[in-house]
Specification:
402 residues, Rossmann fold, 14 helices, binds cytidine-5'-triphosphate, alpha/beta, 2 domains, 22 strands, globular, single chain, eight-stranded mixed beta sheet
Length: 402
């Protein structure tokens, strides 16, 4: 998976730095070429000689050690990297990254890097939970930095808590997972919908649903990471759109349909993860509705079924529908797939524990028009999204051969 990939391994000062040798060794066994950058503090915990021996690559510790070359070096190192891993990442270095400081060789390189960055935080639990550290991690995450861990357990300071660096095997596994789908969606235009639409009743009230948008956002992220050009049409959510994704914000089902139709013809794959309201109020009241002291009957009219209209309009597009069910899950979903003419349908029982709206995990089955069915175990939504990328790539390839 990592054969020939150039890794920049950053090591900062922390007792977990002794585990960096194992990380380097594991990356090397997977075929990665490693350059190591250590902060001065890191060299107090593990020697550059150890890192040079296990990584079989150059080790940089000081920005000014080669005065004629350093200027070129930090930029060329940044440009050559296929990915960067900072492990351990101290609270101090994370704070510098969040601010964009460049006061040593590592932070200078990090500022110039355009490749994916992974960090494995390691620190005392009080430092980890400090609002400043939490905010820095949030900022980095929003910027697209992948945060691995930390774990919880016994700490070098003698206490127990969150902040232990993740195990080297886990860190390397996360990176391998990231590159598993690398490039398999290059050249594909993918439209993803997410979130729950809102149907306004008056200026302050709406009919909505419990969709959090997490599944759709994870799908957009997984396709972007696999190299696709992704457009995300999203109903309101509290989530930050993944980096590298063109995002269009909508509120109602009809707005969602309008935005989809603007770009549908040029798409190769359309994934309808959004929970679209089937009905909207017959009349939008321009002014806030006042209570009358009596009951209130609301008249609703049906919304267009966006997915069904796409199924009828499609030319070359591969269309994936979602189905949220609460009973007769598979039978209902199969009927939906036939009616809406999708090429694949992802179904989840939204009442099951560990599945459905708002949850970080989901349990889905994937149905195909030829009767094939894949049942996935409970997984986090990003892992499900990655699996969908793989399955869609395979299915499209098979279809092209037919
Ligand atoms: N969908 C849509 N437009 C609608 C309703 C649903 O595009 N007006 C899409 C959803 O995005 C999803 C799929 O259709 O991909 C199934 O949505 P779901 O809510 O499970 O089913 P419905 O068709 O609304 O059927 P029902 O509510 O009767 O179960």
């Amino acid at each position: 998976m990592l054969e020939g990939k150039h890794v920049l391994l950053g090591i900062t000062g922390g007792i977990a730095a002794y585990k960096s040798a194992e990380i380097a060794s594991r990356l090397r066994k997977l075929g990665a070429e490693i350059s190591v950058v250590m902060t001065e503090a890191a060299t107090k915990f593990i020697t550059p000689l150890t890192m040079r021996s296990v990584s079989a690559g150059p080790v940089f510790t000081d920005m000014f050690s080669e005065p004629k070359k350093w200027n070129v070096e930090h930029i060329s190192l940044a440009e050559a990297a296929d990915f960067v891993l900072v492990a351990p990442a101290s609270a101090n270095t994370l704070a510098k990254m969040a601010l964009g400081l460049a006061d040593n060789f590592l932070t200078t390189v990090l500022l110039a890097v355009r490749a994916p960055i992974f960090v494995a935080p390691a620190m005392n639990h009080a430092m980890y939970h400090h609002p400043a550290t939490q905010q820095n991690l949030r900022i980095l995450k929003e910027r697209g930095v992948h945060i691995i861990g930390p774990d919880s357990g016994f700490q070098a300071c003698g206490s127990e808590g969150d902040g232990r660096m993740s195990e080297p095997s886990h860190i390397v596994e996360v990176i391998e997972n990231y590159f598993r789908n690398s490039g398999i969606m290059r050249g594909e235009k993918v439209l993803v919908t997410a979130g729950g639409t809102r149907e306004m009743l008056d200026p302050v009230r709406y009919l909505g649903n419990l969709s959090s948008g997490k599944m759709g956002y994870a799908i957009a992220q997984a396709f972007a990471e696999a190299g696709a050009e992704v457009t995300l049409v999203t109903a309101p959510t509290s989530l930050t759109p993944p980096p590298g994704v063109k995002t269009v914000h909508v509120v109602s089902a009809r707005e969602m349909q309008e935005e989809i139709l603007k770009v549908f013809d040029e798409q190769d794959i359309v994934i309808k993860a959004a929970a679209v309201a089937d009905y909207r109020p017959a009349v939008f009241q321009e002014q806030k509705i006042k209570k009358s002291g009596q009951g209130f009957t609301l008249e609703l009219v049906q919304n267009p079924d966006i997915l069904q209209s796409l199924g009828e309009r499609k030319t070359h597009q591969f269309i994936v529908g979602f189905a949220a069910e609460t009973q007769n899950v598979i039978e209902n979903a199969q009927a939906k797939m036939r009616k809406k003419k999708t090429d694949m349908l992802v179904v989840n029982d939204v009442t099951a524990e560990g599945a459905g709206f708002g949850s970080d995990t989901n349990i889905v089955s994937i149905l195909f028009p030829d009767g094939r069915r894949v049942d996935l175990p409970q997984m986090n939504k990003l892992d499900i999204a990655k699996k969908l990328v793989e399955i869609i790539a395979e299915t499209k390839q098979k279809k092209q051969k037919e």
